[in-house]
Write a structure and sequence with these properties.
64% of the residues lie in helices and 5% in strands. With 523 residues, the protein is mainly alpha-helical.
């Protein structure tokens, strides 16, 4: 593979890994803040124990997410310097706002929440958590706004000409209110809630079943409180997952209709729609030459007219096929790359294939949708199995729910792969809403750093893969340890009133604990 392919693999591997943690950080953070709010409002011990248990998982994931996210920005300068030069005027402002307004907000207030137990008033302590969680949401918006600008560039004008030309930001408001960003952000947030809901359902059902088999029922005293912790976790996670699934479908429909306007080739590739159809059929399952990227010999099981509805909200409008769009793109943006080896490397003078990899776009889109449907089914099962105080003991049901924890993470990862792979060969996609003469685009082939060799990128890719593998072992080990341990009652961890939550661990005069605090691993 040449340096471009290796650099793309490196960015894809590190970004998918990082993106596995982002949805859980956003979704679980919001749910932990709700749990903490319920404890402050009701003073019920089960809400406090829920906050502490799920707060541990949230913080482990947050720390690993920050560590892996830092690598992304280094790659822009090391492997993708030409891309950074081109988008710098737009990305610079967005990343600066993300760091100054969002990242410092979430990290500062998260520190107050971690170390504020027993040291600051209840409501101030709760406000610190909400500030940190909302900071994560705002941070996600700035990052998604930056990515959405690449998918649909707005609020800029082109300065210069030739190889030195680059977009200049003219309206930060247009960038921040980009309809692509609004659709993608809403879709990402509800998908994050699905990930958090799946975790609550899977772990909660596992603990309920284990306690039922060990004790026969919920017990009394602390045992009864712990039973309510797991049952409420399952119920909360189930309802959140179902609601999020419905919202994911609605926001996904909005995003899909925008993509048909802005990147029709991506969406036609996702449906293996080779020729223009009116009305267009939705492909349920495709086979034959899909893997070889030969669009002329693909067969599908289809639902008549459904693709026209998904694209245009009616059952008759034509949807352009991949072959027609390939010809159209070649006429407008060039059939070959410019013959400039200094900018395009080995791709200089070569034909441009505007068709994304069919197998990747087609199956990643279906995995994204399918995994969301799996989680919705599991959430419905969990709510049914725990109705009216019931505790499920079915091994298949409970362990199936535990395995389904991975479904929304796979859905999020494949959704990102579909979004990014589907816009190739562009790294900045031309905006069809403006005349061709005013459109801005940038090929991926010209975005890689010219002074970097394939061997150097291979070295960093292998190194990062090994390091990320070690971090995965650390994260899964920590989460597994705390999940198996469950709720720790009477641990002496101080509440925001300064009163320990147990009889035997509040040894320090300032109300702090010397023992097993709720967030002890953070110390």
């Amino acid at each position: 593979m040449d340096v471009l392919d290796v650099a793309r693999w490196q960015f894809g591997v590190t970004t998918v890994y990082h993106f596995l943690m982002v949805p859980l950080t956003i979704g679980l953070g919001l749910l932990v803040a709700v749990m903490h709010t319920m404890w402050v409002r009701t003073d019920k011990p089960e809400w406090l124990r829920m906050t502490r248990f799920w707060g541990r998982i949230y913080l482990i994931n947050f720390v690993l997410g920050v560590a892996t996210g830092l690598v992304q920005e280094f790659q822009f300068g090391l492997a993708w310097s030409e891309y950074s030069r081109f988008v710098g005027d737009v990305f610079g402002s967005l990343l600066a706002m993300e760091a100054l307004l969002a990242f410092f907000l979430e990290s500062t207030f998260l520190g107050l929440w971690i170390f504020g137990w027993g040291r600051i008033p209840k409501r101030v302590h709760l406000a610190a958590l909400w500030a940190a969680v909302l900071g994560s949401v705002v941070s996600a918006y700035f990052i998604i706004a930056a990515n959405s600008w690449m998918q649909h560039p707005v609020g800029v004008t082109m300065d210069g000409s030739g190889a030195s030309a680059k977009p200049r930001l003219t309206s930060i408001g247009a960038v921040l209110t980009n309809n692509t960003a609004l659709a993608a952000f809403s879709h990402a947030v509800v998908a994050a809630l699905m990930a958090a809901g799946a975790l609550l359902v899977g772990i909660g059902l596992w603990h309920l079943r284990r306690r039922k088999l060990a004790n026969g029922w919920e017990g009394a005293g602390d045992s009864a409180v712990d039973h309510r912790v797991w049952r409420r976790s399952v119920r909360l996670g189930g309802w959140v997952s179902l609601a999020a699934f419905l919202l994911v479908a609605l926001t996904g429909d909005w995003q899909g209709k925008l993509m048909y306007q802005q990147q029709p080739l991506k969406m036609s590739s996702a449906e293996a729609l080779c020729e223009t159809e009116a009305p267009a059929s939705f492909s349920v399952f495709a086979w034959n030459k899909l893997g070889s990227n030969e669009c002329d010999d693909v067969h599908s099981i289809t639902v008549p007219g459904l693709l026209s509805f998904l694209a245009h909200s009616d059952f008759s409008t034509a949807v352009p096929g991949v072959n027609e769009l390939q010809e159209r793109y070649s006429e407008v943006y060039g059939a070959t790359y410019p013959d400039d080896p200094a900018r395009f490397g080995d791709k200089a003078g070569e034909p441009v294939d505007y068709q994304p990899v069919l197998a990747v776009t087609y199956w990643s889109f279906r995995l994204m949708v399918g995994m969301g449907a799996v989680l919705a089914a599991v959430a419905a099962y969990a709510l049914w199995a725990t109705r009216r105080g019931r505790v499920p003991t079915s091994r298949i049901g409970v362990y199936g729910a535990l395995l389904a924890v991975g479904a929304p993470f796979l859905a999020n990862a494949t959704g990102w792969i579909f979004t990014e792979m589907g816009r190739q060969p562009f790294v900045v996609v031309p905006n069809p809403d403006v005349p061709v003469a005013q459109q801005i685009w940038f090929f991926t082939a010209q975005a890689v750093s010219p002074g970097v060799t394939a061997a150097e990128v291979w070295t960093s890719l292998i190194t990062l893969t090994v390091v990320y593998g070690a971090l995965a072992v650390v994260e899964l080990g920590l989460i597994s340890r705390f999940v198996r341990r469950g709720i720790t009652t009477g641990d002496g961890a101080p509440t925001p009133t300064g009163t320990p939550d147990g009889p035997d661990r509040a040894d320090s005069p300032d109300g702090a604990t010397d023992g097993d605090d709720v967030l002890s691993f953070a110390y």
